[in-house]
Amino acid sequence: MIYLPELNEVTRRFAALPMSPLTVTARLRGDISPTTGTPIYLDGLLARCVIESHLGCRVLQNTPEAYWLPLPLKMEWQNSGGLPLWSASCFKSNRALSDVEYRHKRTPSGRLSDPSRFKSNVGRYMERRTPVTTIAADTLTAHCIGNADEIKKLLANIKFVGKNRTTGHGEVVGWLIADSDINDPLVIDGMSTRAMPHDYASSKYKFNTSPYLVGWTPPQWKPSLFGMGYPTGTQCITPN
Fold first, then answer.
1. Closest CA to 91 of 166, 149, 158, 168
2. 4 burial class (0-12, 13-18, 19+ CB within 10 angstroms)?
3. Per-residue pLDDT of the chain in tens (240 residues, 90 and over written 9)
């Protein structure tokens, strides 16, 4: 684990905050293009916000190790290496309607050069029609245990979520943070709402499948941080 001195005070401040069950809702304009195979994690989104707001950069130097990034969320558990499991779910759309849009790449007209150079059926100038899966949704909702004021501050500058943001997908027009009566945001209606490590989940839940490698701590896409666990949407038979 890599600890940055710039975040020491933020860590102490977030740890002292009062936490309560919350619902975090993103109001959207238009469809979203989800990340293939990886849902949008609330803790992952907040980790990005912490990097931008408290470190003044968009990305950190890529290393196999994780960076310690404090979040205004309840920390449910840490593994032996210090990786945290935050009390927050993935975002879920209010509708399950999916569609496919097509992105077209046209062959240049060649008005200012020799048009015989541009072949439409082969090579770099070939015309392409790329399908993009989208989800029709007005809102995305996640559940967590955290501090509403700090979460609202961090999310204020997030204007897009999901993939293909440069083409207008997943535009956020506002955030709504409200009190919730869900005291366990990790399992709702008998289904896991996020990926969880086996060492933690086996002590609290009983799932109907065997564990395998999953990304469960921010950033969830980073293979070096994967561990044995249960993915989002795993059926929970009964709590232990």
1. 158
2. middle
3. 999 999 999 999 999 999 999 999 998 886 676 655 578 899 999 999 999 888 887 778 888 999 999 999 999 999 998 999 999 999 988 766 777 777 777 766 666 666 666 666 666 777 777 777 777 778 889 999 999 999 999 999 888 887 766 666 777 889 999 999 999 999 999 899 999 999 999 888 989 889 999 999 999 999 999 999 999 989 988 654
Query: What size, in residues, is the chain?
Result: 240
Tokens 């955030």 — which residue? 175
| Residues whose CB falls within 8 Å of the CB of residue 107, separated by 6 or more in sequence, listed in order | 118, 119, 120, 125, 126, 127
List the one residue out of 50, 46, 39, 42 whose CA is nearest residue 7. Answer: 50
Task: Give the predicted TM-score (pTM) of the model.
Answer: 0.82
What's the token pair of residue 15?
């740890």
